[in-house]
């Protein structure tokens, strides 16, 4: 079954013409285009020969990477003939329409969940008669409904024909909740608003990541997630800048400055959420206003190729409990989630506390708000830069290890020096910068890594949500990392936790890389005869990433 052209060559077997082992140049180029990028479309076929035959379904093996591509002759020829110029033009159109919208909405999400840290240093605790531990509780309560509802939310999202409708409802809902937070009179009211805010925000990030994976080839995903996710970093900068300006309204209309932070930022979110219904792209098929029929066809074929072919995609389209069981029993999912968990602990712990840390350097509240901006800007730049490199080299592991090493160094700087922070301002500020530069590239890398290693549309949607769900549970720990009672001592518990977790994630990333590599190696050792003696076509289609034909991305 099948034949080989020697080391480093390609093996092909056509389903329709198995008896003569003819191969398809069209399919060969399609496979390489999806896996390696358009710059590698022109491939050498000297060792393959010119005697090719186009058939309906192909099974491809190239350099020990397997893919099942179900394409008609017409679709295969169309996809192969789509020029690099057309591809780049289409990519720019999708980038312009989709990524900025998602980034703006995620910016609103992070500002609205984290501006409680800005409100804190503007007198919120005194006005609501709250203690320091009550503040920590109000921050952490957000993450309980937030992490519990992420997976169900993505299942619901798949039932909507237009993702913009569902995501728009979420944005408007949390904007209204944020506005009402500015009217709170006591701790109980603040707690209620934080819970409702979490319910409304829970589905947005996993839904947005899933939405991105539906528009882009795997080699393009991490950079787009990073462009979208860097809004998380920029939210810290914008939040500090907005709080600095809005807090000057203290006393206007009988409202405190911290209340105006919630009111105005909530109203802005509602207006942006309403616009979401009209400007967010849904699917290629529903984007006829700005995509040509040719471009829509190309994107749909690209999706089928990424899913492993039409039959495979159709076989995994509907929800099945077995997909959830596979996810919950897959140790690799938990290793992936631990990466995001650590990033979330660091991100939320620092986000909720950075204004207090900068204020403890001896600056006023206004100056402390402004000093939070540069670290977040540096984090956004790092997220985009590392992600571009990861997509370029199609290798995720080094671009998690590198950033997390920066996080480890940052915590190691702050742990011994923060107790005397007023006399160690340059070193401590550099430590904060390094943590931000390391934590923000990690989430896009982790999200892209798992999205590329779950086959089947429904399973991928749930897997992305589950991964983010477990990862975001780190926000609970992050909420208690830095306790007010330890501020004068330099937050030794918080920085110590950061050191331990960042070191642990370096180890888990290496273990995960080895796991993917070893599984691929075992599958490489299986012959085509062994595979088809053990499984039939239907079984292979339904196995997703468990299939011996599937290769994990490193």
TrEMBL record:
Pfam family name, one: MFS_1
UniProt-annotated location(s): Membrane
One term of GO molecular function: transmembrane transporter activity
Domain of life: Eukaryota
Keyword 4Fe-4S part of the UniProt annotation: no
Start and end residues of each Major facilitator superfamily (MFS) profile domain: 98-521
Record SUPFAM superfamilies: MFS general substrate transporter
PANTHER family: MAJOR FACILITATOR SUPERFAMILY (MFS) PROFILE DOMAIN-CONTAINING PROTEIN-RELATED, PERMEASE-RELATED
Protein name as annotated: Major facilitator superfamily (MFS) profile domain-containing protein
Organism of provenance: Hortaea werneckii (Black yeast)
Lineage start: Eukaryota, Fungi, Dikarya, Ascomycota, Pezizomycotina
